[in-house]
Design a protein that fits this description.
This protein is of the alpha+beta class. The protein has three domains: 147 residues, 2-Layer Sandwich (Beta-Lactamase), CATH 3.30.450; 84 residues, Helix Hairpins (Orthogonal Bundle); 166 residues, Heat Shock Protein 90, CATH 3.30.565.10. It is 54% helix and 16% strand. The strands form three sheets. Strands 2-1-5-4-3 form a five-stranded antiparallel beta sheet. It has a five-stranded mixed beta sheet with strand order 7-9-10-12-11. It is rod-shaped and about 150 Å long. It starts with a helix and ends in a 13-residue tail after the last helix.
């Protein structure tokens, strides 16, 4: 296959180079011939005017002498002269008779004639005039020299074309080998990856050319695939581990509830516990499904203009009772309206996950603050608490699925909350920023300035107070 590709590349290169060379050389030939013809005609016409001046100065005898003198000078083998009287009888020159059909003053003509100094007919290009008393004067050039020049030029062009074809073959083969060597390197790496060597990457030459850019793109794709495969393995292992405990407890609760000798109240309690374990497994599966759908980009087609401030207030209202039961003060500080392009349900779910984490870890009597504001020109939706926080070294790891700070995997929660929030942030071209709140954690969704949408002015503020949507409804620019 490589040989066929090499042959095609070399053949295509040869054809293109040969065509380009032929066009260039043909243009050179055409221009050179045109320039020579123009210069030759200019010389003949100048000589014709000079002889006409001789006629005016010295009359017919002086003109005849001038013609003979020109024929006798060295290097005049291609020159053609003929001076005749008014009846066409030769007076001077190297032609026997006036050519039939040639009208003096009729412009340039090409004739096949016998010269007096030649044994064979020759092609002549000439121009003629009629003198003052009816005499005729013809001046021209034998085109045999031009034909010889054309033949020489054509041979030179042919040799040039042949040399260019040989050079094209060589350069075409070299270029094809260079290209195919890079392609073979990519194919070899792909074969190795298909064989299981997922850590292999395409070599980059450092030249910064198209192949390097292609290699960089493919390597980035391979890194992404490798990360997804790693995530899949981690999810599979973690899911098997995390499901084992609730499913084991579920089986034990069901077995206990089936024990007819147990008291009815105890059996009912076991059924309740089994239901709770089943709800835990169902919630974990639902969260994993939501996470997979978000990472696949499902939901981006449902983006609309949403008000982050209103989402913050709604989530604060939803969790107010739960916060009060735990002795926490849930506060909402919002700048309204704060409009972005996004998925309202997913953004609310991400904020709810952050609030739920804060409720689980914040100590009683401390505030939890939901904030929606603009930092610089970027919209920011955040939750801050005064709990134990997350160490800086762990802030990247906790974004992964099933990642927990507590080493005991049965300490509550599936470790999917922040992973879901991070996926929602990436779907919205935003960033999940985890910072120290001294003490506690400040978790923020920072949106790009391109996601921000200008509110509809004072009217929007007025409608926000009445509960109507504050952000304008606009078409998705995508």
């Amino acid at each position: 296959m490589a040989r066929n590709a090499t042959t095609r590349l070399v053949a295509a290169h040869l054809v293109l180079v040969a065509l380009a060379t032929a066009l260039v050389l043909g243009f050179v030939y055409w221009r050179a011939g045109g320039v020579i013809d123009a210069e030759q005609r200019a010389v003949v016409e100048a000589e014709l005017r000079g002889l006409a001046d001789d006629y005016r100065r010295a009359g017919l005898p002086g003109l005849a002498t001038a013609v003979e003198r020109r024929l006798d000078r060295p290097g005049g083998r291609d020159e053609v002269y003929l001076l005749t009287d008014a009846l066409g009888r030769r007076i001077a020159g190297n032609l026997a008779d006036w050519p039939p059909g040639v009208v003096p003053g009729g412009g340039w003509v090409t004739l096949e004639l016998y010269r007096l100094d030649a044994e064979r007919p020759t092609t002549i290009s000439a121009v003629s005039i009629r003198l003052g008393r009816g005499e005729r004067l013809l001046v021209g050039r034998d085109v045999a020299a031009r034909a010889a020049f054309d033949a020489t030029l054509l041979r030179a062009l042919g040799w040039g074309l042949a040399a260019m074809a040989l050079m094209a073959l060589g350069t075409g083969w070299l270029l094809s080998r260079l290209i195919l060597r890079r392609i073979d390197g990519i194919a070899g790496t792909a074969q190795a990856i298909m064989g299981g060597a997922l850590d292999r990457r395409i070599a980059v030459s450092g030249a910064g050319d198209e192949f390097d850019r292609l290699a960089g793109t493919l390597n980035a794709m391979l890194d992404r695939i490798s990360g997804l495969v790693g995530d899949l393995r981690m999810v599979t292992d973690s899911l098997a581990h995390d499901l084992r405990s609730p499913l084991g407890r579920l089986i034990r609760h069901i077995d206990g509830a089936l024990d007819e000798a147990a008291p009815a109240e105890a059996r009912l309690d076991l059924v309740r516990r089994a239901r709770a374990e089943a709800e835990t497994v169902l919630a974990m599966a639902t969260t994993l499904l939501d996470l997979s759908r978000i990472e696949a980009g499902i939901g981006a087609e449902q983006f609309e203009t949403v008000d982050l401030a209103r989402i913050g207030r709604d989530v604060a209202e939803l969790y107010a009772a739960a916060a009060e039961e735990r002795g926490l003060a849930l506060e909402a500080e919002t700048e309204g309206p704060l409009c972005v392009r996004g998925h309202p349900q997913l953004l609310a779910q991400a904020l709810a996950n952050l609030v739920d984490n804060a409720l689980r870890h914040a100590p009683a009597g401390t505030p939890i603050r939901i904030s929606a504001r603009t930092v610089g020109r970027a919209p920011v939706l955040s939750v801050a608490d005064h709990g134990p926080g997350i160490p800086a070294a762990e802030r990247e790891r906790v974004r992964q699925r099933f990642a927990r700070l507590d080493p005991s995997r049965g300490a509550g929660g599936a470790g999917l909350g922040l992973a879901l929030v991070d996926a929602v942030a990436r779907l919205h071209d935003a960033s999940l920023v985890l910072e120290d709140h001294a003490p506690g954690l400040h978790a923020a969704l920072v949106f790009g300035t391109g996601r921000a949408v200008a509110a509809s002015g004072g009217a929007a503020g007025a409608t926000a107070a009445s509960g109507a949507p504050a952000c304008p409804a606009i078409e998705d620019p995508a």
